[in-house]
Specification:
This protein is α+β, with helices and mostly antiparallel strands and 147 residues long. The chain has one domain. The protein has a 3-stranded antiparallel beta sheet, covered by helices on one side. Helix 1 runs antiparallel to helix 3. It is elongated, with a radius of gyration of 20 Å. It starts with a helix and ends with a strand.
């Protein structure tokens, strides 16, 4: 009976680790999908990208982007960044993000994004709290160079 009890406890522990790893993989998939979404937004607004309107901005709501008349590429960039950061925050626990020009894309933390503004490669950085300890330490970075 004792051996069976230890075996069942071991199986329960494995199930717990499996669930935690599955959740972690889900968050990484969400981060991957969100970075692809931002790249597609930037591809759709080539003028905004060329003008640097996506570089390290907080984003802003632009009502004219939802009207028939439309909005400028800069206003569209602001709206894109605002919508995208809201999606990151909603999809990931403690989700934080930045989109910036950065020569060394794979660096920084949620508190200090380490964007240097050098070069012409955009870094899309997303952080989230993978182990739910209150600190967004898990990072996913994608770099993209406009053509």
């Amino acid at each position: 009976m004792l051996v069976l009890a230890f075996g069942l406890l071991g199986m329960a522990g494995m199930q717990s680790v499996s669930l935690r790893n599955n959740q972690s993989a889900f968050y990484r998939t969400q981060a991957t999908t969100l970075t692809a979404d931002m790249i597609e937004r930037m591809r759709a607004n080539k003028i905004g990208v060329e003008d640097g309107d996506y570089d390290d901005v907080a984003g802003a709501a632009t009502a004219s982007c939802f009207l028939v008349a439309g909005c400028t590429p800069g206003e569209m960039a602001d709206q894109d960044v605002l919508d995208w950061t809201a999606m990151v925050a909603a999809a990931l626990p403690g989700g934080d993000s930045v989109l910036c020009i950065d020569a060394t894309g794979d660096d920084g933390t949620a508190a200090a994004n380490a964007c240097d503004g050098a070069g012409n490669v955009y870094a899309i950085k997303i952080w989230w709290d993978d182990n739910r300890d209150g600190v967004a330490e898990q990072r996913y970075v994608t770099t993209w160079q406009p053509l």
